[in-house]
Amino acid sequence: MNNFSSPAVHADGLSKRYGELWALRDLNLDVPAGTVLGLLGHNGAGKTTAIRILTTLASPTSGSARVTGLDVVADAAAVRSQIGVVGQYAAVDDLMSARANLRMIGRLYHLPHATADRRADELLERLSLADAADRLVKTFSGGMRRRLDLAASLMARPPVLFLDEPTTGLDPEARSELWALIGELVGEGMTLILTTQYLDEADRTADQIVVLDHGRVAARGTPTELKARIGGERVAVTLSSPAHVTIAAQALEPYTSGPVASDGAEPEVIAPIQPGTRLMEIVRALDSAGVDASDVHRREATLDDVFLTLTRREQPEPAKEAVA
Amino acid sequence: MSSTSITIAPPLLARLRWQVADSLVLARRNLAHVRQIPEKLIDVTLQPLMFVILFAYVFGNVIHIPGGSYHAYLFGGIAVQTLVFGLMGPGTAIATDLREGIVDRFRSLPMARSAYLGGHFLAELIAAMLAILVLSVSGLIIGWGIHTDLPHALAGYALLVLLAAAMIWIGTFLGVVARSPDAVQGIVFLVVFPLTFVASAFVPLEGLPSALRTIGEYNPVSTFAAAVRTLFGNPTAVPRGAPWPLQHPVLTSVLWCLALLAVFVPATLAMFRKRTEG
């Protein structure tokens, strides 16, 4: 089914403007079949806009994109038969049973009756929903709804699957269950485009990562490449209160090799440290600045650091705003 | 219908077949909803029945109809009122869908683009026909009857179905533009409810104060009711000196329905595209 002569997903200068605002600007993508692309970014960075255009739900203002070689605008109808989409909100019908939902989606994928029914049963079994198959979806937990949503996207065995923040709002157990399933799908050779704010998830799953910021590509590469680029060791300081973020950042200044990062919401600062810096010196500096730190440790750079470094706004607004 | 051109367009006949098949799959979804929440059918079954009983036996004795019985007069009015209120069903259903992610799900499937609204339309039209059936049977029980020939009777039912179609599209429009299902209900009670009462649906216009009477005479609800009464051979109680539209209710009603469809079908499709393709 895959068109081997072209990448599973290709985008060329993809842009979308809403009024005066460019939600997405000049996105270029090349996702080989069978690989996983992670789109990272804050809310409003353009991730969902990119997914909506690639899945034919929105049309680009300029630029073009192809999915399995088919143009998302000119061949929109054909593209839809090649993709599965899991949106941010579980798009399932509350007033129908899980089985009825899947059968309906199968029929709308134009599968023959018998095939739709059989696939529905297979997927319910595979996604551990068989026991709840005939229950109304409105009685489902968040994790069950997500699994059903994923099952719906898999009804036509699409070669390309789009997942827009698939684990948002799930508890840790449901999250890891869902990732196990997604891992299986990747193992079976499916091409995956996913957006997430949980960077550890992207780190584990994605072959290629594109970081979006204000609609533009801020960086791209493999997780390893990205981590190597901003490189080096980090010191992470956990504070007793977000009010200490600014003082802590100032105290760290002499020992850092780059900007001090903080996402503003957590009482934590992270900074790349100069080679040879001893942890003791940092602890002393923090202490004499009057910072109440509950934990100070060194570690290797993570994708979170990449993300914070690349998409950092001006110095984090400390304290008061962070509380909200 | 599709806003995008398809390079390899499937043959027209195959496309039509999928349009119908997909709409049926989605209409069946509404049916599944009714099975879970049977109250959804109240407005097309018990509610008209209640109005029949209420008006026929509570108000019926004090309302005098020139040239016939009130029970025979009542049928046309309640039929029209029920169908006009039928715009609430698609309105709330579509507003609810749009608030959730399910419309995006449907739009990402290779189904016919028209099938989503088409499915709602089919389901609502079936509900409206059920209402017409319930009303006809209850009408026959209280003494309403058809006193014209078969072609007129069929034309009467055809007009009711045409009216239902026009109202469903108005409701669909409201569902697409409203911010929430509650907003649809608000609009219906503010606009539609008075519209069905300042009309000849339940009482002859002659008894109304002059300002209301003028509104009632030009109110399309009066025209629809008079048209149904004319086609079934029931008393119309159209006042002498009524304006031209009310004197020619059948033609005016057909024109009204066609005009409403001509406005609301394209407007709904345009708004739906605007709302979902962002």
Say what the CATH topology of the largest domain in chain A is.
Rossmann fold
Shape field of chain A: globular
Number of domains of chain B: 1
State the helix count of chain B: 12
Kindly report the spatial arrangement of strands forming the biggest sheet of chain A.
6-7-8-3-9-10
**Percent strand of chain B:** under 5%
Query: CATH superfamily name of the largest domain in chain A?
Result: P-loop containing nucleotide triphosphate hydrolases
Can you summarize this structure?
By secondary structure, chain A is an alpha/beta fold. In chain A, 35% of the residues lie in helices and 25% in strands.
Q: What features would you describe in this structure?
A:
The complex is a heterodimer of chains A (324) and B (278). Chain A has 324 residues and is an alpha/beta fold. Chain A is built from 12 helices and 13 strands. Chain A has helices spanning 47-54, 76-80, 98-108, 113-126, 142-154, 172-187, 199-205, 223-230, 245-252, 279-288, 303-311, 320-323, and strands spanning 9-18, 21-31, 36-40, 62-67, 70-71, 83-86, 160-164, 191-196, 208-213, 216-221, 233-239, 268-272, 293-300. The model of chain A is unreliable at 314-324 (pLDDT under 50). With 278 residues, chain B is mainly α. Chain B has one domain. In chain B, helix 2 runs antiparallel to helix 3 (70-85), helix 3 (70-85) packs antiparallel against helix 8 (181-197) and helix 7 (150-177) runs antiparallel to helix 10 (220-232). The model of chain B is unreliable at 1-7 (pLDDT under 50). Chain A binds chain B through residues 18, 55-59, 71, 73-78, 80-81, 83, 85, 87-93, 95-96, 100, 104-105, 107-110, 136, 152, 156, and chain B through 2-8, 18, 21-22, 25-26, 28-29, 32-33, 36-37, 100-102, 104-111, 115, 276-278.
